[in-house]
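Handout, page 2. Input:
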Amino acid sequence: MKHFLLAFLAVFTLTFSLQAQDPAKALKKATRDLGDYRVDPSANEAKLEEAQKLIEIAVKSDETNGLFKTWQKRGEIYNALASKEAGMVIAGMKAELSEETENAIYEAVKSFKKALSLAKKKFEKRDAANGLAEAASYLNMLGNIYLQKGAYTEAYKPLKTTLELHKLVVENGGKPIFAEDKDYNDNLFVTAYCARAAQKNEEALALYQQLYAMDYDDANIYAALFDLLSKKGEEEKALEILQAGKEKYPENTELLFAEINYYLRQGRLEELLDKLEVAIQKEPDNVSLYTTTGNVYDQLYQMESQADEPDEVKAQEYFDKAMSYYQKALELDPNDFNAIYSIGALDYNKAAAVIQEMIALESDLSREGLRKYDEKKAELEKLFNEALPWFQKAESLNPNDQNTLIALKEIYARLDDLEKSKIFRERLERVRNGEELEEPYFKQ
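Output:
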């Protein structure tokens, strides 16, 4: 009797396995399992997993993969899979959605879109559209989780997909994803911002142009369009947008900063200085404005000092201006790396110009030539000694900055401290090889 029972069980298991492989029966069984899960999710979690396996049999079969019901049920199953973890996020039990759940959401979207393409009756289109609306709610959650982490590149895809689904849902009689036009427009604005942050410039441009056409009230639209159009080479159109933005938002600093970045890219330094002065008046505590202004004067100094017939008085004036703006930045933030490094670089670059003068004097072995050479050598050492503490401070703040390490290596070599020059050559090689130095050589 015992052997007969075992044989019967074996036959029953084999029969069920064969039935499960039948696509039509797999579809029916998947539908029943999903229904059981919905009645009591906690007691029937295994049935949802079984439904997922069974629906894939139906999807892969020519017999059932052309049916509306197959894809509709597949979408509902994947929505149910996504809802488990989404509910935990809403309840505060989890902070984010897993990769598995993220994939389930996109599978649900894929399934409902396919179902919609197969739908013939009005209620079928509505059901597919409502399935998409549910999946979109999970996509919106996913996008917002990424936004909270500042992961704008990752947030872009789910947010953009949500916008696309909204129109599809409404057209097919489903419940709108965004109840009000304002909600849709606000999400469009955030999605455009994420597209730009993800450097998807063409897509960002299209989204911002939509916002501009609907007269969305935010200066960022004008700043972003100006930047994107100017980078694309559409200068005239970009400047028209910028002017319109400045007229609409005369006190907005974002538009001013967009204009500053434009002049920086164009290398229009003299015009840029006027814009920076206006920006400083509006934001007198913005450290980066002072370092940027210092950098502009630094560039003007280098251009003048390297000219065929340099105006030494004007060059020194630019040098002093650059130094004064860097010092103003340090008054606001004594540990600002950019200002500290830039002061060191200012003296370092001046020293580099002195080296060129020394090279020109090397062939002059007259008494006067030797005297001038010695004067230049003394000037060189003075400049390197003035630059050195700034680079030491910069290294203490960021031991992995390659330009700082190069400067320290060269300065110590020029000052005949070959031991320290070797130390910084080795540290530089380690950083270049991908190592991140945990401790600076110089302590604050």
